[in-house]
Design brief:
Elements: H1 10-13, E1 36-38, H2 42-45, E2 51-56, H3 66-79, E3 84-88, H4 92-104, E4 107-113, H5 119-127, E5 131-135, H6 139-152, E6 156-157, H7 163-169, H8 171-180, E7 186-190, H9 195-207, E8 239-245, H10 250-253, H11 275-285, E9 288-292, H12 294-308, H13 314-329, E10 337-342, H14 350-355, H15 368-378
Parallel strand pairs: 2-10, 3-4, 3-6, 4-5, 7-8, 7-10, 8-9
Antiparallel strand pairs: 1-2
The structure holds pyridoxal-5'-phosphate (PLP).
Length: about 375
């Protein structure tokens, strides 16, 4: 086989741990294999000794972790003869669905909330040729409509209620276990529909077990026996910690929220689709949920960009904002290995970034004296 050392994406890498046939036509864009970056400055900001990593999922082909699930969902949809896919989206699912549909040569319909969608995500859906329907309603209303439509027309739903999405997304946990040669003690994620926290737990469960044959001692209850694919064997699983935006925190309220609001538009979801699964993850892993204000989320986004060189979108920073707070308070103890998922790239949402710029951009005359003055002032 030519070019056999080329990385071509997570389906070919994890073929034996995913529910696909060996000879399936893979719809892929080289997704997965994202960097696990160790943060050096942020632990010092909270003056605690922890090994803190971010898994930068913003470096997937369309700039978010959604590509991990989408390569699986679209590969399976095409395999089963689908000619069109549909999703409701706060932005990233539509960007990803549009790209993979373009790759596959099938149609893509996306329902997005009126306004409240980050500019980069809208640009992606349009450029990849999706039919974009902006509804006068929020994500939850769009999700309801998509479910009804798919019952009446030949459309495959590629939201995370599509089980192949979670199968693709579980591979992020495999990659982390391979790199650390163990599971982290804590894994922190932003939570919207709660599909990703569920998918990571499936991945960690499939990586855990004991004995040389990789048989599991405890199977997780979520993966329908798929755990037998366990190969990278670790003997423990992390506590899974889910962070929500305070204005959109149904897991903290213990009930759906009808009018969710937050600057972190990717997690502006009041009726999470994986509600029961996420509660099971929290219980089984010994983890917890918590909430952050928009100010805390944006502060963490700036800290990451400014102190560590990592630019993620606001929703993604929720994981780091929460982890830093829990590390500082000791709820996550010193000596822990902590992984935070940074779900999407900062370039997705330039408006929110620029709105925070303050006096970062200075206008001067195009003359040496003026420019030198401005620079020398800041040296
Ligand atoms: C989709 C998304 C989330 C939320 O993930 P869920 O699986 O819905 O909990 C968080 N951050 C970003 C950037 C996303 O695109």
């Amino acid at each position: 086989m030519p070019f056999r050392h080329r990385y071509t994406g997570l389906i070919s890498k994890y073929l034996d741990r995913l529910p696909v046939q060996d000879d399936v036509r893979i719809i892929g864009l080289g997704e997965g294999n994202t960097p696990l970056i160790q943060l050096s400055k942020l632990p010092r900001v909270v003056a605690r000794d922890v090994d803190l990593f971010v898994k930068f999922e913003g470096l997937n082909p369309t700039g978010s972790f959604k590509d991990r699930g989408m390569t699986m969902a679209v590969t399976k949809a095409v395999d089963e003869g689908a000619k069109a896919i549909i999703c409701a989206s706060t932005g990233n699912t539509s960007a990803s669905a549009a790209a993979y549909a373009a790759r596959a040569g099938i149609a893509c319909f996306v329902l997005i909330p009126d306004g409240k969608i980050a500019l980069g995500k809208l640009a992606q859906a349009i450029m990849h040729g999706a039919q974009v329907l902006q509804i006068r309603g929020n994500f939850d209303a769009g999700m309801r409509l998509v479910k009804e439509l798919a019952e009446q027309a030949p459309l495959t739903i590629v939201n995370s209620i599509n089980p192949y999405r979670l199968q693709g997304q579980k591979t992020a946990a495999f990659e982390i276990v391979e790199e650390l040669e163990r599971a982290p003690d804590y894994h922190c994620l932003p939570v919207g529909n709660a599909g990703n926290i569920t998918a990571h737990w499936i991945g960690y469960c499939e990586s855990s077990g004991s004995g040389q044959d990789g048989r599991l001692t405890e199977a997780c209850t979520l993966c329908d026996g798929q755990c037998r694919f366990a190969s990278a064997v670790v003997d423990k699983r992390p506590r899974m910690v889910g962070y929500q935006a305070a204005g959109s925190a149904p897991f903290m309220r213990g009930a759906p929220v009808d009018d969710p609001d937050t600057v972190a538009t990717a997690i502006r979801i009041g009726h999470p689709q994986s509600w029961q699964q996420a509660l099971a993850v929290s219980r089984e892993s010994g983890g917890w949920f918590d909430e952050l204000s928009d100010e805390e989320i944006l502060q963490a986004q700036r800290l990451l960009a400014d102190h560590e060189g990592v630019f993620c979108e606001p929703a993604s920073a929720t994981s780091v904002a929460g982890a830093l707070r829990d590390i500082r308070s000791g709820r996550i103890p010193e000596g822990s290995t902590v992984v935070c998922t940074l779900t999407g790239h900062g370039l997705k949402d330039p408006d929110v970034a620029i709105a925070q710029a303050g006096d970062a951009v200075q206008t001067v005359d195009a003359e040496l004296e003026a420019v030198r003055g401005a620079i020398v002032d800041r040296l």
